[in-house]
Design brief:
By secondary structure, this protein is mainly α. It has 9 helices and no strands.
Length: 201
């Protein structure tokens, strides 16, 4: 199991663009959770959020495109589902994806490592929650459930993904558009989210 304190320490050593890239990569991987939920229950504006996340990637790649991220915060917030309003599990990972995007924008604006730490934890919690809901057993003790979640293939994939993103950001002597494109392709994960959801037919 990955040591969360170690991830935190490593994030604290990253410069602002790399911190934002870490957030964007994890948000990108979570995005299908919102896109599918949005389509199924006709909630929110997935296209608008997609455009905002694209804007973050464009800025990281120095494409010349400009976006006022301060203004986008309100738009992102307006797309956060109220869990009490939806009698379905899918609202929870959808909310996680939107919260991750909000933290990513906050990271762009404030270069705060705590936002990146929050996104790392949020993505892990999203996976843990999914495993518990879909495969958890009432007969398990708390310790057994924690062990089951932490050794589950999906959690191991999540930890490996976060490790790959961090290693990519730590090893890049030049943080250039090519590196950003590589990271974005890794994060797209062939259209599958951190909990195996795809919104691509």
């Amino acid at each position: 199991m990955t040591d969360q304190l170690e991830i935190e320490a490593r994030l604290l050593r990253l410069d602002p663009p790399r911190l934002t890239a870490f957030c964007a990569a994890l948000t990108e991987r979570m995005f299908p959770n919102f896109a599918l939920f949005s389509r199924l229950v006709e909630f929110g504006d997935a296209a608008q959020l997609r455009q905002i996340l694209n804007g973050v990637w464009d800025q990281l790649a120095n494409s010349g495109a400009k976006m006022n991220f301060e203004v986008q915060l309100d738009k992102v917030e307006a797309n956060m589902p109220e869990l009490d309003d939806f009698d379905m599990y899918g609202a929870s990972p959808a909310l996680d994806a939107v919260v991750a995007l909000f933290s990513t924008l906050s990271c762009v604006l404030e270069a705060d490592a705590s936002e990146a730490v929050a996104v790392a934890n949020l993505s892990r919690e999203c996976v843990a929650n999914f495993i518990e809901v879909t495969e958890g057993d009432d007969q398990m003790s708390d310790e057994e459930l924690v062990r089951f979640i932490n050794t589950h293939e999906m959690m191991l994939q999540e930890e490996a993904f976060q490790e790959d993103v961090l290693e990519s950001l730590e090893s890049a002597s030049a943080f250039n558009p090519a590196r950003v494109r590589e990271l974005r392709a890794l994060a797209r994960n062939e259209g599958f989210s951190n909990i195996g959801i795809s919104d691509e037919d």
